[in-house]
Design brief:
The chain is mostly beta strands. It is built from one helix and seven strands, in the order αβββββββ. It has two domains: 30 residues, no CATH class; 90 residues, Sandwich (Immunoglobulin-like). The chain is 7% helix and 32% strand. The strands form two sheets. A four-stranded antiparallel beta sheet has the order 1-2-7-6, with no helix packed on it. It has a three-stranded antiparallel beta sheet with strand order 3-4-5, with no helix packed on it. β3 and β4 form a beta hairpin. The protein is flat, with a radius of gyration of 20 Å.
């Protein structure tokens, strides 16, 4: 079967099961409304955890092998987007690779939070391949309303 889009996680030139299902279901009239592979356009993804605390959200993402200058965190309204670029490694000339699983290129994930994000409420730190993004929750302003 020919796929109409790039493979999300190609190993040895073979499509993954989610690639096949993502192609097959629309052909028989089933639209899930989302991608089974949940990846960015390049097909790469990284693992992330989101923890909600009373006063903040903490997003922890694994980005091994990526330097601080190759990580980007952007905020827009209630959306936080984390992207990282793992630089391409030069292949050893004449090497006979039996397996090549480590991928290079752009990795990107976006997460919606239940409130608008103010950039001054966001901080990020990268340590040993783990990115920790902290998003402070907005303070609830209690304002007394004068009744006329």
């Amino acid at each position: 079967m020919l796929l109409s889009r790039p493979l999300s996680n190609c190993v040895c030139g073979l499509p993954t099961a989610s690639d096949l299902w993502s192609e097959f279901l629309p052909r028989i009239g089933i639209d899930l409304g989302y991608s089974l592979s949940d990846t960015d356009q390049e097909g790469h993804r990284f693992s992330a955890d989101i923890v909600e605390h009373e006063d903040r959200f903490e997003i922890t993402a694994d980005v091994p092998g990526v330097s601080k200058s190759d990580v980007n965190v952007e905020c827009e309204n209630d959306l936080i987007r984390i992207s990282a670029n793992r630089r391409e490694e030069a292949l050893s000339e004449g090497a006979n690779y039996r397996r090549k699983e480590r991928v290079q290129g752009l990795f990107s994930r976006s997460f919606r939070l239940p409130h608008v994000i103010e950039t001054e409420d966001v901080s990020a730190m990268l340590t040993d391949g783990v990115l920790k993004v902290t998003v402070n929750k907005p303070k609830a302003d209690v304002k007394r309303i004068e009744i006329r």
